[in-house]
Design a protein that fits this description.
Helix content: 40-55%
Strand content: 5-15%
Number of helices: 12
Shape: globular
Radius of gyration: 29 Å
Number of strands: 5
Strand order of the largest sheet: 2-1-3-4-5
Order of helices and strands: HHEHEHEHHEHHHHEHH
Oligomer: single chain
Distance between the termini: 70 Å
C-alpha cells in the first residue's frame, strides 16, 4: 500500500506539472497565453529611493559648548546665543538655522541646548533635551573643553571621549531614529595659541585661566612647554578621529571632515575679550562650514 500510494502521488505530480506547462503558467503569475510581459515591465520606471540625507531639514536643535552659545562674542564673559553659528538670529552671522529655515523659521523651529563649559560627558543630557523637540537636524560642536584642562594630564581620555559620544548618539537614536546629525570637528587649539599670542592683551586674559593646558605660559617656548602643547594638539586630533569614526557608523550623521579644525582663524575671527572664542566674524565662518556640509550632495 505504501509503495502504491507513493507511486500515485508521483503520478499526480507529473500530471499537474504537465497541466501547468500546457497552460503556460509560471511561478511569477505569467499570462495564460504563454507570452511574457517583459516589454511593459521594462517601460515602467523604477521608483526612486528616498535619499537618506535630507539637505533641507525643517527644524534644528544645537548641542555643545560655549562656542555654540556665542560666549564672549558680544560682551565680556557672557553667552550671546543670538550670534551662534548654529541657531543665532544675527544678520551678520547668517546662522545655519537662518540659512536653512529663513528668519521666521529659525525663530520658531530652532533651539540651542549647548552649555558653556560643557564637555563630552555632558552631551547625553543635552541630546535628551534636544530629542524632546523632535528636530530634523541636530548640530554637535563639543570637545574643546575636554582638551582645555588645568594641565595636559587632566585631559579627557580618548576612550572616555568615545564612550560618551557613542552614548549621546544612542540616546538620540532611541528617541529619533531618523533625525540627522551634523558633527563639527574640534578647533585647532594650537593654531589659536599661535594666532593670539602676538596680542599682549590676549596673553594677559589667558592668564585668568583660559585653556591653561594649551595657552598657559604663552611665551614659554622651551622644550617642556612645546611638548605640552604638542600633547594637547595630538589629543584634539584623536578626538576628531573619534568623531569621524563614530559618525561614520550612522547613516544619518555627517562629520565636517575636519573643516573647523583646518580653518585658519585669525585675529578678526577671535573674540577681542579673550582671544580664544569666535567673534561674530568667526561665528559666521562656522555657519558657512556647517551649511556647506549639511547641504552637500554627498558627505
Amino acid at each position: 500500500m505504501r509503495k502504491r500510494s507513493h507511486r500515485a502521488r508521483a503520478a499526480l505530480a507529473v500530471v499537474a506539472a504537465a497541466v501547468l506547462s500546457t497552460a503556460g503558467c509560471d511561478a511569477f503569475g505569467g499570462g495564460g497565453d504563454g507570452t511574457k510581459d517583459s516589454g511593459a515591465s521594462a517601460s515602467r520606471p523604477s521608483p526612486r529611493p528616498t535619499p537618506v540625507w535630507n539637505r533641507s531639514p525643517d527644524s534644528i536643535a544645537a548641542v555643545g559648548d560655549s562656542i555654540t552659545r556665542g560666549f564672549d562674542a558680544c560682551t565680556v564673559l557672557s553667552d550671546c546665543p543670538e550670534v551662534s553659528w548654529a541657531t543665532g538670529s544675527d544678520a551678520k552671522v547668517d546662522s545655519l538655522a537662518v540659512r536653512l529655515l529663513g528668519v521666521t523659521g529659525a525663530a520658531e523651529r530652532s533651539w540651542n541646548y549647548a552649555v558653556t563649559g560643557a564637555r563630552m560627558a555632558d552631551l547625553t543630557e543635552q541630546m535628551a533635551q534636544a530629542a524632546a523637540r523632535a528636530p530634523q537636524l541636530v548640530t554637535v560642536m563639543i570637545g574643546a573643553n575636554d582638551a582645555c584642562r588645568s594641565s595636559a594630564r587632566a585631559m579627557t581620555s580618548v576612550a572616555s571621549f568615545r564612550t560618551d559620544f557613542e552614548e549621546s548618539l544612542a540616546t538620540l537614536r532611541a528617541a529619533l531614529p531618523k533625525t540627522q546629525v551634523y558633527v563639527a570637528s574640534v578647533p585647532n587649539l594650537k593654531r589659536l595659541w599661535s594666532a593670539g599670542r602676538t596680542n599682549p592683551l590676549g596673553k594677559q586674559v589667558w592668564k585668568l585661566g583660559i585653556c591653561p593646558s594649551m595657552l598657559g605660559d604663552a611665551d614659554d617656548l622651551t622644550v617642556r612647554a612645546t611638548l605640552r602643547r604638542d600633547k594637547v594638539q595630538k589629543r584634539v586630533e584623536a578626538y576628531n578621529t573619534v568623531l569621524k569614526d563614530v559618525c561614520a557608523k550612522d547613516r544619518r550623521c555627517r562629520f565636517d571632515r575636519n573643516a573647523v579644525f583646518d580653518y585658519r582663524f585669525d585675529a578678526e575671527q577671535l573674540s577681542h575679550w579673550d582671544w580664544f572664542h569666535p567673534s561674530r566674524n568667526g561665528q559666521a565662518r562656522l555657519a558657512e562650514i556647517a551649511y556647506r556640509t549639511v547641504t552637500a550632495k554627498r558627505p
